[in-house]
């Protein structure tokens, strides 16, 4: 496939409270890969949004529903998620799993899911995951717990995880010194943007 073919619109969802944190650095490398093949990326910092937890009301699943009943910033995010071809989701590991900002976002995406694949906007949605953690091991840090949560959730809704990139770093931005990881993230971005 040649550059410029199958252009995509990608939404990057950054789940760290640090705008220069390590998961954000990884996500920006994925974004560079996406943009290098001509796709457009819209970046959303979840920490700056007013997103409430899912209320378990099931209003989004009732007959003739117009979607999630919770009136907050997810209402402006839902159309972007539906209209995009792919998502990048980035999160640090906080207390053995994804950040709370990322988890609330994930929970609220329940309103998008539908058993009818013809109207399920997450079906075949292409997704890339970026994770950072402070421990030297993805198992001891809890990174594996988060990765498994992404795998299980997106398999269930019929989405496609194109790639996952994750690595260890303590100080904000430190992960950028891992050249191999940066190259891997950029390649995932290229793969995400081109079928």
Write the layout of secondary structure elements.
Blueprint: E1 9-14, H1 22-36, E2 40-45, H2 74-83, E3 86-94, E4 97-98, H3 100-108, E5 126-133, H4 138-141, H5 143-157, E6 160-168, H6 179-193
Parallel strand pairs: 1-2, 1-3, 3-5, 5-6
Antiparallel strand pairs: 3-4
CATH architecture: 3-Layer(aba) Sandwich
Q: Which structural category do the helix and sheet elements fall into? A: alpha/beta
Beta-strand content:
15-25%
Q: Briefly note the CATH topology name.
A: Rossmann fold
Number of helices: 6
Largest sheet: 6 strands, mixed
Instruction: Count structural domains.
Output: 1
Calculate the terminal CA-CA distance, rounded to whole Å.
Answer: 8 Å
Give an overview of the whole structure:
The chain has a single domain, classed as 3-Layer(aba) Sandwich (Rossmann fold), CATH 3.40.50. 35% of the residues lie in helices and 21% in strands. The protein has helices at residues 22-36, 74-83, 100-108, 138-141, 143-157, 179-193, and strands at residues 9-14, 40-45, 86-94, 97-98, 126-133, 160-168. Strands 1, 2, 3, 4, 5 and 6 form a six-stranded mixed sheet that branches. Strand 3 (86-94) and strand 4 (97-98) form a beta hairpin. The termini are close together. The mean pLDDT is 93.
């Amino acid at each position: 496939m040649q550059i410029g073919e199958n252009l995509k619109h990608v939404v990057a969802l950054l789940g760290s409270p640090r705008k220069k944190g390590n998961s954000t650095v990884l996500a920006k490398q994925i974004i560079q890969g996406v943009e290098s093949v001509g796709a457009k990326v819209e970046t959303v910092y979840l920490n700056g949004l007013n997103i409430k937890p899912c209320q378990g009301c099931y209003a989004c699943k009732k007959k003739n529903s117009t979607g999630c009943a919770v009136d907050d910033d997810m209402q402006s995010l839902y159309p972007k998620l539906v209209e995009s071809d792919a998502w990048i989701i980035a999160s640090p590991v906080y207390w053995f799993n994804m950040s709370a900002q990322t988890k609330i976002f994930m929970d609220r995406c329940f309103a998008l899911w539908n058993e009818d694949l013809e109207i399920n906007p997450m079906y075949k949605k292409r997704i890339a995951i970026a994770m950072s953690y402070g421990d030297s091991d993805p198992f001891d840090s809890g990174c594996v717990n988060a990765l498994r949560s992404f795998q299980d959730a997106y398999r269930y809704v019929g989405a496609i995880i194109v790639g996952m990139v994750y690595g260890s770093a303590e100080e904000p931005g430190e992960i950028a010194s891992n050249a191999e990881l940066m190259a891997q993230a950029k390649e995932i971005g290229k793969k995400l943007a081109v079928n």
